[in-house]
Each structure stands twice: as structure tokens, then as C-alpha cells.
Q: What sequence folds into this?
């Protein structure tokens, strides 16, 4: 019997289609492993199962009945629990109080003791020897312990039943021992008839502990089958698709390394072996790997190193950064388009002590022509532009400056294809003119513009791929390599 | 020592230092109050008596109530800039309508609580910064107070005056009242099961919403409680001063914020302490007396209160930092 069944579920965030018609079902007493690259739609799918997001279209059936207006409260009642990827405990509450948050039925006299006993019992059951006191303040605990509490909390039962627990990267902050404890508990729970959805980037965990595996890519399910029918290579190729056919051709124009001067030399702070990132003048260097594995941190360290000493990072030349999160780190929302473009070049735009509006306009107009920012008037507010054009303005800001090195923190997220292609051409042209680009991206297609790619994993450089060696499979392999290998 | 036992020893040390930091931080407000009391006792031993404390602390009651009101709002990561003029407004209502036409007075006070609840709902639903909304409300309450009582005057209801001038045996009334307020709010906010939800909605709103609780409700509840204590603050103030003035609560906004912070609260993250807040209010009030005994002109007292705040916050920062290094 199905615990949950999704039919043709779609979900859009603005112009981005996170889920494009997903069919997904979990039966009683099975553990489903869910894998996919970043942005494949796993987390969105999970939020829909947990009732924290509403699908735009499609049907959600829980416990065999269609659910209209399915939301968190109903999900709780129907016994569906979720451990979210970003930790969702209240740091200002104790362990027991956080347990109470999930269980409205724990109330009245002695509720603290009830909640404390409940969570301690579950922690003892899953993570024996955990050493967590129920009256400890969550904010005082290490991230690993918080994850243990969150997982244990999801398995506690009071008045509502427990049918399905969704675990999104539950072992990301656990050491090998506690991760093993958790996963064997999952098997025990599944043996009693409850179900689990396990999302993990550690393919070994998925292969070993799930009954069935579902692979997602670009918002749809691309493969599904019994875990025994999969192995590591099969999973990797399912996640990467057959695009490996687009093999990187031995490149034409790229000069062999070392003929131009070194612009950036940087070693991530957690790098223990000798690998380091090197970028020469006129190169486009890619930073690949799963998101949040230290690429942004290294870019920020390089950015900081341009103005002050940062250990392990050497930079020769001025630096400009194109932020990934346009709304929070990129644009000045109250300023005009021209002001947004000119802000990185203030020094050149000065006449006397003041900024010259003519120089500013001239700079902006030049770039408007070069990368076709679609607007009638550059003195309009930046927010009058569409997202893609705002991003172009940010490129114009960096490329219009005197910076020799341009750092790009996955700036193409949510940008439409035609804009992307225009920007790729621009970047290649600027690189040929002698600029150095460091480009963090999670998209394979963008890496193909790079002459050299570093793959990151857990804050370290895991692989150093030359243009000729670059392939989607190699990038995925290096991103998912496990410690035990 | 094996690596495993070394790691577990480090873990224990870390847990212990976390606890020590909490104890130190909790003790800080009490410590500053003790220092101020010792200063007063040293300068003027006779002040530490039933009569002296009664005199020095009587004005601490409205301050403590306003501080608790502010604390409720700070718990859910907002700030109430209007609490001072709200106290003025309540004072004006209680010195006029509440005395002359009690039913009208009660109705007005109750509906002002309703307005506060609506302000909370507006802040949540429209996602506007509380500072903006309450800054607007500051002028609304101020204007209403002036409309009601253009010139200082009015008279406190007799029962209110009698209540605030109660003489309890052995322990001065203001001290008893302060303890009562602190304990009552502590039990309500820190010990009840819904109190945990209320504080959690300041600590991690997303997590509370994902567990199926209504953030709209927590916001409304907290703002309603804030106005309830604002009303109590205005009433007690008028009971002490016997007549009202449209500017009577002017200093309370900053005093209440200072009291919450002095008492160990933080602006964001739902970390507050009701008992600490009451102690903070007492400290700030007594600091005025201490400065009087030191023959410092009242002109300097606001500055001196600020200095106390800075010293205590610096001490707190040092506690946090030394601990961050060992952890």
C-alpha cells in the first residue's frame, strides 16, 4: 500500500521550474533513497511531502486518499515527519522544549519532564552513548549533536502515528559512527512497517540502506528501481544523464599553462595535501562540485586577499566580485541602473571631489551596448529591469571596472538561456584580452567554458582537471568521492 | 590518553564551559544590582531600610512593568518604540475617565490592548519592520494623550492610589511587587508549554511554523501581553504620582529597552529573561538614587545610566569571548 503518492506534481519559483511533473510513491515498510545533483528538485519534493510547500499543480495522495489543501498540520496528523537539511531547532530553547514544539499533546503539569523523557529515550535508542542532557540549551551544543537531536525528535511518537520519516542529508554533520547508528535505526524502523525517504549525497549510504532508489534530474524522476539493480557507476550516469556524449573536445585556443604570469594562487584553509588553486592571466578557471562545499568561501578569501594579508592566498592584481545572490549581495535596490554599474569604478568616474554624472552615463551606455541591457533609460531604477538584465548590469559593473581578476560566485542562477550565451561570449572575449576569471558554478555547461577546473568537496580541492580531462562524469565522481574509498 | 577519551573529555569540557557561561550571564544582572545597592549602602547606610527602599524603589514598579512589556516584544524579534507614549496615554486615561466614568475608562484600556494586538498582526502579515510601525504608534498614543489631557492634571482613582501606597509588613511593597511580577512572568513565559512556543518563535520562526504552529497567533499574543503590561505600568505610575501629564511616560521607551538588555536579554533570537528584566529595571532606578547620593546633578543621570549599560554589556561580551576561545 502507498503511504504517499504524488502524480504529476509541478512547482515553480518565479521563472525557475523546480519540479516539472513528478510522479513519486512510497510504500509501507520501505526505505526509498532519493539522489540527484544540486537543483534536481529533491528538496522541493520533500517540502511538498512535508506540507511546507504547496504544489502548483498535480495530485497529492496520503494514506490512499487525495488531499486538498495539504499542509503541515495535516501532515503531522497523518504521521509524516521531516528532518530538514538546514537545521530547524530553536537555539534558544532546551532539547526538551524543542521536542515539545513538535508535539502539541505534551502540555500541562510536568510537560518538561515528559518531553525530556521522550527525547532522552529516543536518543538512547538511536545513538547510545550520545551524552546529551534534555535540559541543555540547543544553542550551546555542537552541530553534530543538534543533528542527532533533530533526527531523534522526528522519530518520537506521542498522540499522532508515525508512518513516514523524510531525512534530508541526515548524516551531513555526523561522524561515521553516529551515521552508522542512525542508518541501522532506519532499517529497524522500516522493519516495523514504517517508511523512510533518505536523501544523501553519499551514494554508498543510499546503495547500502535503501530498498528502492529514485534518481532525479532537472525537476523530473529519471530513473527508479530496486537498490540491488544499481551500483555506483549506474547512479552517477543516471544523475549526469547521457550528456557525457558532449565530450570535451581537445581545446584549440587555450595556451598551455604557465606561459602567462600567475594572477591567483590560493589554498583552501582545510586543504591538507599540497593541492592549490592557480589561475594565470587570461584564464577562465572553474570551481566545481556540489554547492556549499567551500567554493564561495575560497572566492571570498581571494577577494579579501586583494586588500589585506590572508594566509594561503596570493593575489596579484585588482579584484572584482560578481555575487551569486543578486538581491542580497549584488544590486543596490534604490539606485539607478547607471549608478549600479558605476559603483565599482568610482575612482575613474570622479571629477574633482564629486562623481561626474556624464562619465557615469558614458560608462553605462558603453556597457549597455556591449551586453544589451534592455532598458529605455539608464537612469531608471535597477528594479525596473528583469532578473536577467539585472544580472547583466552586475557583469557590466565588474567588467567595466579596472579589475584584472573577476570572481564569479555562481552568478547565472535563474538566468535565461539566451542571456547566458551572450555572457559566455563576453567572458571569453574578456579572457582573451587578458583578464582572469574564477568561476564557481554548479552547471556542467558553464564549466565547458573553462580552461581549467577544480572540483571541491568538503571545503577542499578534490580534483584538478585540465580542459581535456573535463567530463561531467569526472566532476560528479570527484564531488561524490567518499572518505572510505 | 586514547584519542577517543581525549575527545570525550573535550566534549565534557565544552558542555561544562557552555553551562558556566550561562550561569555567569544569568548572574550578571544580579551582580550589577548588588553593586549599586552596596554603593548606596556605603554612601548612605540609612537608605537601606524599610522606609528608604520604599522611597527609592516605588518608581521602579512602573519601570519594571514597562520593561516586561518591552521584553515580550523583543522575544519575537521586534522592538516597541511606542511603549513610553502608550504608558502616558494609559496614565491620562486613568487620571480622567477611569476615575470619572470607570466603565468608559475600562473599555478604552481594553480596546487599546486590542489595538496593540492588531499592530502585532499587521507587523506579521505585511512583514513591515516593527520599528516603523511602532514609531508611527508612538505619535498616535502621544497625540491621544495630549487630546485627552492638554495640561497636566487629573486625579488618580482612590483605589489605585491606595493600592500603590500599600504598606506591607517587614518587606517594602515595591520589592514584593517586583518579585511577584518577575516570578509570574517567569512561570508564564519560561515554564509553560506554550511559553516555549512563544520563545521558539523568536529563536527560529521557520521551525515553529514547520511544526504546525501559527506565527500570527504568537505575534498577536506577545503584543497583547506587551500592552497588558503597558496598561499596568501606566496605572501604577498614576497611582504613585496621583495626577497625570501627557508626557509622563516619555523616558520609558529607552528605559525599558535598556532594562531588558541589562537583564540578559538580546535583541534577536528569543533570548530573554523576565527575572533579569525586572532586576535590570530595579538597577536602572536605583542607579538614579546612587547618583543623587553621590551629589551628581540629575542632568547627568541619563548619561550615567547609559554608562552602566555599556559596562554591563562589555562584561557580557567578555564572558562570551573568553568562552568562545576555550570552546
A:
Amino acid at each position: 500500500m502507498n503511504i504517499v503518492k504524488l502524480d504529476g506534481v509541478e512547482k515553480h519559483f518565479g521563472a525557475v521550474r523546480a519540479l516539472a511533473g513528478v510522479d513519486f510513491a512510497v510504500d509501507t515498510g520501505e526505505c526509498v533513497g532519493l539522489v540527484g545533483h544540486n537543483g534536481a528538485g529533491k528538496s522541493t519534493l520533500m517540502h511538498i511531502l512535508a506540507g511546507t510547500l504547496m504544489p502548483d499543480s498535480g495530485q497529492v495522495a496520503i494514506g490512499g486518499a487525495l488531499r486538498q489543501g495539504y499542509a503541515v498540520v495535516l501532515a503531522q496528523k497523518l504521521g509524516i515527519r521531516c528532518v530538514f537539511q538546514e537545521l530547524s531547532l530553536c537555539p534558544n530553547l532546551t532539547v526538551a522544549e524543542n521536542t515539545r514544539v513538535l508535539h502539541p499533546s505534551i502540555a500541562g503539569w510536568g510537560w518538561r519532564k515528559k518531553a525530556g523523557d521522550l527525547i532522552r529515550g529516543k536518543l538512547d535508542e538511536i545513538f547510545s552513548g550520545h551524552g546529551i542532557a534534555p535540559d541543555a540549551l540547543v544553542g550551546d551544543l555542537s552541530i553534530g549533536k543538534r543533528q542527532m537531536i533533530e533526527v531523534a525528535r522526528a522519530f518520537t511518537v506521542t498522540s499522532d502515528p508515525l508512518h513516514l520519516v523524510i531525512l534530508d542529508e541526515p548524516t551531513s554533520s555526523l561522524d561515521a559512527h553516529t551515521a552508522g547508528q542512525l542508518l541501522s535505526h532506519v532499517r529497524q524502523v522500516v522493519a516495523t512497517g514504517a517508511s523512510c525517504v533518505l536523501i544523501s549525497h553519499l551514494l554508498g549510504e543510499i546503495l547500502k540502506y535503501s530498498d528502492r532508489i529514485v534518481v532525479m534530474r532537472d525537476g523530473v524522476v529519471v530513473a527508479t528501481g530496486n537498490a540491488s539493480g544499481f551500483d555506483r557507476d549506474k547512479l552517477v550516469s543516471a544523475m549526469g544523464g547521457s550528456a557525457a556524449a558532449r565530450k570535451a573536445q581537445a581545446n584549440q585556443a587555450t595556451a598551455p599553462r604557465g606561459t602567462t604570469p600567475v594572477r591567483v594562487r590560493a589554498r583552501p584553509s582545510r586543504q591538507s595535501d599540497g593541492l592549490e588553486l592557480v589561475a594565470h592571466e587570461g584564464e577562465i578557471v572553474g570551481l566545481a562540485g556540489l554547492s556549499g562545499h567551500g567554493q564561495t568561501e575560497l572566492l571570498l578569501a581571494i577577494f579579501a586577499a586583494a586588500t589585506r594579508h590572508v594566509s594561503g592566498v596570493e593575489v596579484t592584481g585588482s579584484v572584482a566580485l560578481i555575487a551569486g545572490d543578486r538581491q542580497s549581495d549584488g544590486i543596490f535596490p534604490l539606485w539607478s541602473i547607471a549608478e549600479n554599474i558605476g559603483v565599482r569604478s568610482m575612482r575613474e568616474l570622479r571629477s574633482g571631489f564629486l562623481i561626474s554624472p556624464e562619465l557615469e552615463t558614458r560608462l553605462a551606455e558603453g556597457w549597455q551596448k556591449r551586453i544589451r541591457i534592455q532598458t529605455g533609460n539608464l537612469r531608471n531604477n535597477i528594479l525596473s529591469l528583469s532578473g536577467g538584465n539585472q544580472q547583466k548590469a552586475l557583469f557590466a559593473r565588474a567588467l567595466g571596472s579596472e579589475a584584472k581578476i573577476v570572481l564569479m560566485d555562481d552568478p547565472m542562477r535563474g538566468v535565461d538561456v539566451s542571456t547566458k550565451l551572450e555572457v559566455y561570449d563576453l567572458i571569453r572575449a574578456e579572457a582573451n584580452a587578458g583578464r582572469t576569471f574564477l568561476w564557481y558554478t554548479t552547471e556542467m555547461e558553464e564549466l565547458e567554458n573553462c580552461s581549467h577546473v577544480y572540483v571541491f568537496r568538503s571545503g577542499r580541492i578534490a580534483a584538478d582537471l585540465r580542459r581535456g580531462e573535463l567530463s561531467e562524469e569526472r566532476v560528479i565522481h570527484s564531488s561524490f568521492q567518499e572518505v572510505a574509498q | 590518553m586514547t584519542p577517543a577519551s581525549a575527545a570525550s573529555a573535550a566534549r565534557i569540557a565544552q558542555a561544562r564551559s557552555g553551562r558556566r557561561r550561562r550561569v555567569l550571564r544569568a548572574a550578571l544582572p544580579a551582580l550589577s544590582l548588588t553593586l549599586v545597592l552596596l554603593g548606596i549602602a556605603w554612601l548612605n547606610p540609612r537608605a537601606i531600610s524599610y522606609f528608604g527602599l520604599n522611597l527609592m524603589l516605588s518608581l521602579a514598579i512602573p519601570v519594571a512593568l514597562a520593561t516586561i512589556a518591552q521584553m515580550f516584544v523583543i522575544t519575537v524579534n521586534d522592538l516597541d518604540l511606542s511603549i513610553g507614549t502608550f504608558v502616558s496615554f494609559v496614565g491620562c486615561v486613568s487620571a480622567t475617565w477611569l476615575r470619572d466614568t470607570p466603565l468608559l475608562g475600562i473599555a478604552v484600556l481594553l480596546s487599546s490592548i486590542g489595538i496593540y494586538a492588531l499592530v502585532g498582526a499587521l507587523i506579521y502579515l505585511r512583514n513591515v519592520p516593527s520599528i516603523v510601525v511602532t514609531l508611527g504608534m508612538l505619535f498616535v498614543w502621544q497625540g491621544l494623550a495630549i487630546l485627552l489631557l492638554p495640561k497636566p492634571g487629573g486625579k488618580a482613582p482612590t483605589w489605585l492610589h491606595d493600592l500603590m501606597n500599600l504598606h506591607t509588613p517587614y518587606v517594602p511593597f515595591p520589592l514584593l511587587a517586583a518579585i511577584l511580577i518577575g516570578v509570574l512572568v517567569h512561570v508564564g513565559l519560561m515554564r509553560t508549554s506554550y511559553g516555549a512556543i512563544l520563545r521558539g518563535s523568536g529563536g527560529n520562526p521557520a521551525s515553529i511554523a514547520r511544526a504546525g504552529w501559527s506565527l500570527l497567533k504568537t505575534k498577536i499574543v506577545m503584543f497583547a501581553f506587551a500592552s497588558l503590561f503597558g496598561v499596568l505600568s501606566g496605572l501604577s505610575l498614576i497611582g504613585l504620582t496621583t495626577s497625570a501629564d501627557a508626557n509622563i511616560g516619555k523616558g520609558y521607551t529607552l528605559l525599558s529597552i535598556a532594562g531588558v538588555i541589562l537583564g540578559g536579554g538580546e535583541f534577536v533570537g528569543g533570548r530573554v529573561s523576565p527575572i533579569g528584566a525586572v532586576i535590570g529595571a530595579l538597577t536602572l532606578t536605583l542607579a538614579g538614587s546612587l547618583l543623587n547620593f553621590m551629589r551628581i546633578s540629575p542632568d547627568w543621570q541619563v548619561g550615567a545610566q547609559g554608562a552602566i549599560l555599556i559596562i554591563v554589556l562589555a562584561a557580557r561580551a567578555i564572558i562570551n569571548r573568553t568562552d568562545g576561545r576555550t570552546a
In short: The two ends of chain A are 38 Å apart (CA to CA). The longest helix of chain A spans residues 111-126. Residues 22 and 175 of chain A are 33 Å apart (CA to CA). The interface with chain B takes residues 50, 52, 72-73, 75-76, 82, 84, 88-93, 97-98, 100-102, 104, 106-108, 111-112, 131, 133, 136-137, 140-142 of chain A (CB under 8 Å).
